[in-house]
Amino acid sequence: MIRFREFIKKYRATCAVDGLSFDVERGEAVALLGPNGSGKTTTIKAAAGLIAPTSGDVSVGDPLRPAELPEARRALSYLPQKVTFPDSLTGREVVEFYARLRQADPVRVPDALRLASLNGASSRAVSTYSGGMLQRLGLAVATVAAAPLLLLDEPTAALDPDGLCAFYGVVDRRRREGHTLLFTSHQLGDVERLADRFLLLVAGKLTAAMDRAELADRLSARGVMRLRLDRRSPALLEAVRALAPRSVWSGDELIVPAPAADRPRILDVLRSAGAEIRGLVAEEGRLDDLYRELIGAAA
Known about the structure:
This protein is α/β, with parallel strands linked by helices. Helices cover 36% and strands 27% of the residues. The strands form 3 sheets. A 6-stranded mixed sheet has the order 6-7-8-3-9-10, with helices on both faces.
């Protein structure tokens, strides 16, 4: 549904995106991650046909067409990072306007307002909306058309917990219908909750790509066991280090960095050494730690 081939975008002397190539398949959810200024918004705008490549190609739709063509843009809905609407209109009027513009079935309007949790505010003027409510209104506008491709730029940035639940509900429903999602986010919870795959951009370059299984493996490899034993002894530590070399004592806890697959053998070693396990906490690796590690490696 989306194809980037050696996409480069320059603004005078600044190269916002440099040689980006990737595909997004039908029904897939792909997250673009990266620090501010890494080229995420430029990439989303290029897929929406709002900016032209300096060089390279960007195609969307099924069949694939150049993103700047009207035929390609009909296949997608786009939610920008910041949304603005006429203050004097109500939320419902805004959604109705965009439904007519996109030639959407009018019956989709109340559905979009409900899914975005705007039913109670749809008759109020946009001028009375908070930032989070404006974001929800933007989500309603983006979903009122039955476009098979959603492009969302920081969709959860201003949402409160209720808005976040509404957003996840909208995306889950669209995913069940086989729609495709490309989104940017600084909220790593969005990535773990929504993405089948994530791409990391740093300084306009693609520096890492990982699917859900690969991410789970990477996080598992960074897992840690925290053990409280009946005694603290150098012999126990040495026995565990044969399997997990980075193990250390911290106070009365034995800290054992080890993937989930190695943990049963480590526990067997401790039992064989006669240790009594009085407490055990297993922690998987954290996505934010992995993210910082990848950013640092690419810097």
